[in-house]
Fold this sequence. Notes:
Elements (H helix, E strand, L loop, with lengths): L1 E12 L6 E12 L3 E5 L6 H8 L7 E6 L2 E2 L5 H11 E4 L11 H11 L4 H14 L15 H13 L5 E5 L7 H15 L5 E5 L11 E6 L2 E6 L8
Parallel strand pairs: 3-8, 3-9, 6-7, 7-8
Antiparallel strand pairs: 1-2, 1-4, 4-5, 9-10
Helix pairs in contact: 3-4, 3-5
Amino acid sequence: MLAVSCRQVVKEFGEGQTRVRVLHGVDLEIPAGELTMLVGPSGCGKTTLISIIAGILSFESGTVELFGQDLSQLKSADLVRFRRRTLGFIFQQYNLLPALSAAENAAVPLLAAGMARSAAVGKARDLLARLGLGEHLGKLPNQLSGGQQQRVAIARALVHEPKLIVCDEPTAALDAGSGQTVMGLLRDAAVAADRGVIVVTHDNRIYRYADRIAEMSDGRITSVDTPQHQKVA
């Protein structure tokens, strides 16, 4: 099963003479049960591509399917419901709600899905404790360091056990130990037949967690490698 299938995806920004093509007919397959890393220089289109895969950005042409569902065939409200149910997205900007505690922020996807507040916050607290934030559960985002905020954002993406987890530089603000903990959780999430994980990264310390490494350059996928020798059991 494929978690993601992109076929000839084209994305442009701007209007008229300032219009710029950012993705040039991208083809990419993300198998379920695997962790795929997307690498390449800044500005090559990585974040644009994962934003399209996550249904956040539209695209000019091509097809994008998640677990067999063609995103272009979904109406706006259906796409929102599909994303809520299927996706967990870890943004570079953490997008935490300033009036909610760490545990409440992490529980947001469960609350949106209708889970009782006590159960949702309890599950979020357990996950945050695994991420080393057990002593910070009641703190507001402005009382947390950048790395702590990032771990809350990661917990929020994982807490509802989505089928596809999409991560934009998830270890960028973390020390080596915290980064290994995060990648271990993402790796655990990936090794299921009906799930997939995509990680955009410049952090070559975590390449060994990848089943596949797809390299981008100038809005195109230039290679896909399966570095068996680097994988973590």
